């Protein structure tokens, strides 16, 4: 890899060009320090990579607004991260990139900084004068963007002043500002105006391009209407395969297949391994450990992963330290309570000051968990509000601490929840009462803020850690309308045996399984995971799956999936009998290419007997090769059109009237009537 800047030039006095060159050189030096220190496995500190060596593109989508008033926008795919800046469909000076924790938002910003520093020919960034990358979690109390640049991006001995920085930026013709992690920005609701908020709302840097990254549930309260929204959707099969080959095994085909086979052997981890951060650890650990095992629950997998953190460090320690080390590995009650307190607040807290953490956990415990990589330190500015403070004391640095990932916070919080729920005085009736009546729990936090939709793994881990707690948690979840299917997944965590939930799954699949657009993300995700359990075991027949106004598209990359509007995807269900896709609420004009994809998906569902599509506009002509497999199995394909109902003749590949409508082939006039009725309903 080329060093983007071997020598950082000195400033020539009075030379604005010299100052600009110095500024750019110092920025590039800082970014190189960041993008050369990517750490796929946090507990192996001596294994650092350049971001370009390990970066693999997951799915990226952009939001398309509906033309008609009141219509919902739809998410459509971008082919590459390069398109974020050069695609006309997302052209704007303001963009928001959304993604859940671990989906690679920060890694993407490092890749963009790499592209800029090294002037990658394919990148739009090669022509950008200046790139500013700021991590918002560091900027609490910092109201000036120029101060933030000075304090966090330039070396401490830089002669450039905040005024110099402002002058340099104002003279640039093209600037890209990346604000990473709005969901972790301490001053989201601060009453004092800050440049960060002014930049987001386009009061400041109006002519410059700005990218803001955040979790989908933490969008800014105000942003300009012309802001383009994009979303990272995680790793599909193709992205996982690319990462394995690029960053783990190279050209070793056998080793790559071994990792992929281990993932197939662990279907319960499918949803978890859509999170790039988790899959990366899974891939490296499964490649490097011959003892890697089959996991029947996410609890058993996470327990194994945590043990890898500890065992790696233990092997490096002297014998006399091992006893104390073992104690800290098993006794982490205060960290459990701290994590639970943070997640069970109305406004979740996942960052603490180092001083507070050391007081709560003890210095030895704290040091060990930092060395392991479970706790992560970060330097931030500490700006004094004391008007009597001398200048040297007004701006200082402090260290803040967070767990490596939110999943780790959920893991330790689950230990506290399971211990609390297993107590004899905590009955199911009291649990339910505290939730419904907002009564203060023993933990001094309301159970109502532990939303399973956001904190599903707190509940699942708790059930896997303690069977007594699991019984109460599962009973509680079954009282929630949106969590009955999720409760089945918690039963799996409790026992660790798929066999213990097969009866529940079989009962669910014997009836019509509905997925609605209005369902919570938790309900949709739980339903899909239960369908995966059914089809993986091959003995459970899935009667019918109905997708009501939630179907988005067919994803043919890295294995075929049905993509939902929620961005969840349904894999091929080999034991599915009937599939129903209904788009009545919005109407969908499905192209020939997309319909071919639906037919290909249906062909992979080996037990499928019927495919039904309702209130969508299908193509009038079907290619013969797209129905060859369905023809061999005599699968019935029905289209409920806006006017008439039709059945696809798999021999002639023509639409014919459904039997209840008579006989005959759909004519051009018939199809034109369908088009006109469709437009009348959905375009007026």
UniProtKB/TrEMBL annotation:
Domain NACHT: from-to ranges: 96-246
InterPro entries registered for this protein in UniProt: NACHT_NTPase, P-loop_NTPase
Superkingdom of the organism of origin: Eukaryota
SUPFAM superfamilies listed in its UniProt record: P-loop containing nucleoside triphosphate hydrolases
Name listed for the protein in its UniProt record: NACHT, LRR and PYD domains-containing protein 14
Organism encoding this protein: Holothuria leucospilota
């Amino acid at each position: 890899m080329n060093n983007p800047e071997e020598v950082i030039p000195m400033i020539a006095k009075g030379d604005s060009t010299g100052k600009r060159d110095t500024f750019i050189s110092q920025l590039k030096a800082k970014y190189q320090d960041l993008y050369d220190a990517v750490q796929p496995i946090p507990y192996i500190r001596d294994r650092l990579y350049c971001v370009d060596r390990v970066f693999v593109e997951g799915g990226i989508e952009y939001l398309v607004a509906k033309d008609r008033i009141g219509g919902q926008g739809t998410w459509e795919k971008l082919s590459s991260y390069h398109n974020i800046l050069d695609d006309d469909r997302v052209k704007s000076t303001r963009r928001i990139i959304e993604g859940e924790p671990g989906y690679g938002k920060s890694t993407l910003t490092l890749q963009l900084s790499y592209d800029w520093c090294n002037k990658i020919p394919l990148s739009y960034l090669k022509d950008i004068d200046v790139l500013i990358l700021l991590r918002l979690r560091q900027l609490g109390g910092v109201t000036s963007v120029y101060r933030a640049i000075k304090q966090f991006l330039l070396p401490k001995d830089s002669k450039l002043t905040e005024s110099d920085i402002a002058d340099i930026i104002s003279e640039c013709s093209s600037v890209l500002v990346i604000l990473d992690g709005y969901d972790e920005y301490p001053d989201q609701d601060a009453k004092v105006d800050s440049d960060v908020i002014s930049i987001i709302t386009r009061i400041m840097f109006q002519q410059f391009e700005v990218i803001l990254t955040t979790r989908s549930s933490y969008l800014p309260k105000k942003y300009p209407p012309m802001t383009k929204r994009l979303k990272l959707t995680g790793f599909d099969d193709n992205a996982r395969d690319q990462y394995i080959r690029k960053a783990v095994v190279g050209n070793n085909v056998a080793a790559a297949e071994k990792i992929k086979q281990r993932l197939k052997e662990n279907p319960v981890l499918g949803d978890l391994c859509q999170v790039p951060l988790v899959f990366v650890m899974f891939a490296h650990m499964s490649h490097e450990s011959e003892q890697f095992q089959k996991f029947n629950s996410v609890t058993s997998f996470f327990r194994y992963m945590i043990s890898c953190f500890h065992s790696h460090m233990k092997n490096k320690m002297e014998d006399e330290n091992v006893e104390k080390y073992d104690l800290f590995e098993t006794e982490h009650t205060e960290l459990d309570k701290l994590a639970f307190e943070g997640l069970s607040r109305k406004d979740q807290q996942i960052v603490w000051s180092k001083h507070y953490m050391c007081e709560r956990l003890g210095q030895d415990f704290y040091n060990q968990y930092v060395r392991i990589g479970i706790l992560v330190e970060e330097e931030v500015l500490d700006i004094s509000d004391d008007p009597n403070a001398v200048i040297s004391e007004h701006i200082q640095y402090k260290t803040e601490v967070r767990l490596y990932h939110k999943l780790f916070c959920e893991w330790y919080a689950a230990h506290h929840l399971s211990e609390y729920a297993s107590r004899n005085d905590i009955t199911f009736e009291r649990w339910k009462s505290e939730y419904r009546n907002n009564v203060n729990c023993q933990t001094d936090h309301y159970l109502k803020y532990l939303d399973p939709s956001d904190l599903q793994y707190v509940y699942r881990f708790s059930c896997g850690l303690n069977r007594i707690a699991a019984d109460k948690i599962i009973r509680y979840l079954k009282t929630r309308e949106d969590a009955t299917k999720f409760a089945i997944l918690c039963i799996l965590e409790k026992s660790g045996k798929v066999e213990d939930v097969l009866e529940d799954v079989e009962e669910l699949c014997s009836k019509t399984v509905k997925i609605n657009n209005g369902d919570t993300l938790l309900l949709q995700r739980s339903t899909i995971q239960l369908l995966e359990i059914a089809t993986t075991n091959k003995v459970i027949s899935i009667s019918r799956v109905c997708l009501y106004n939630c179907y988005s598209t067919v994803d043919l990359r890295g294995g075929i999936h049905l993509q939902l509007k929620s961005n969840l995807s349904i894999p091929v269900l080999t034991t599915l009998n009937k599939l129903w896709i209904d788009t009545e609420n919005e109407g969908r004009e499905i192209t020939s290419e997309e319909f071919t994809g639906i037919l290909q998906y249906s062909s992979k569902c080996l037990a499928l007997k019927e495919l039904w599509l309702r209130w969508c506009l299908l193509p009038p002509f079907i290619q013969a090769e797209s129905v060859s497999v369905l023809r061999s199995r005599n699968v019935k394909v029905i289209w409920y059109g806006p006017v008439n109902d039709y059945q696809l003749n798999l021999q002639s590949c023509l639409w014919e009237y459904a039997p209840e409508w008579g006989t005959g082939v759909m004519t051009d006039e018939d199809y034109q009537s369908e088009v006109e009725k469709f437009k009348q309903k959905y375009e007026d």
